[in-house]
Specification:
The chain has 174 residues and is an alpha/beta fold. It has five helices and seven strands.
């Protein structure tokens, strides 16, 4: 079994004159990422590999999540920045099978689109919740009854859970 965890970056600020790739996390985003890290640890959702977009807000999201997880192999992949669902899927399909659990820290709309593309099974209410809104710092956990990432295809995933900052005791934003 393979497990894909899709974490949308936490809430970023939008300072004037700063390039999109250089937008830092807002305080609210730092808090949400820290809580999500604690949640991942508490639920024993520790990935074998984390792939992180190189934008500042995704790197900072990872920097607040990672301490709760301990040592996790991480790679920063420029292909994740502003990628749409099929681009993200192509990256996932390249992952070596010894990495049975994978965390992507990426951006919307690609993160939400990839989750929607891959999920074909799971509790109907949870799937509807995910498709309704995929806010910043939200996490989708998708399981595949497969042995190789290269075999992942549309609709083959089971949404094991979808968790938002609101469910971890924070006000939800975009």
């Amino acid at each position: 079994m393979l497990r894909l965890m899709l974490l949308r970056h936490a809430k970023a600020s939008s300072p004037s004159g700063v390039l999109d790739t250089d937008r830092p996390l807002a305080k609210r985003g730092q808090d949400a990422a820290t809580r999500m890290g604690a949640y991942l640890r508490g639920e024993k959702l520790v990935p074998d590999l984390a792939l992180v977009s190189p934008s500042l807000r995704t790197r900072e999201t990872w920097s607040f999540v990672q301490p709760a997880l301990g040592i996790v192999k991480v790679e920063y992949d420029a292909r994740l920045y502003a990628a749409h669902a099929l681009q993200l899927l192509a990256v996932v399909q390249e992952i070596e099978p010894e990495n049975e659990s994978l965390l992507l820290v990426c951006h919307n709309p690609g993160c939400e689109e990839l989750a929607g593309l891959l999920v074909g099974h799971g509790a109907k209410g949870t799937r509807q919740h995910m498709r309704q809104k995929y806010p910043t710092a939200a996490l989708a956990v998708i399981d595949f009854d497969l042995d190789a990432w290269s075999d992942i295809a549309q609709g083959e995933g089971t949404l094991e859970r979808f968790v938002t900052p609101r469910e971890l005791g924070m006000d939800e934003d975009d």
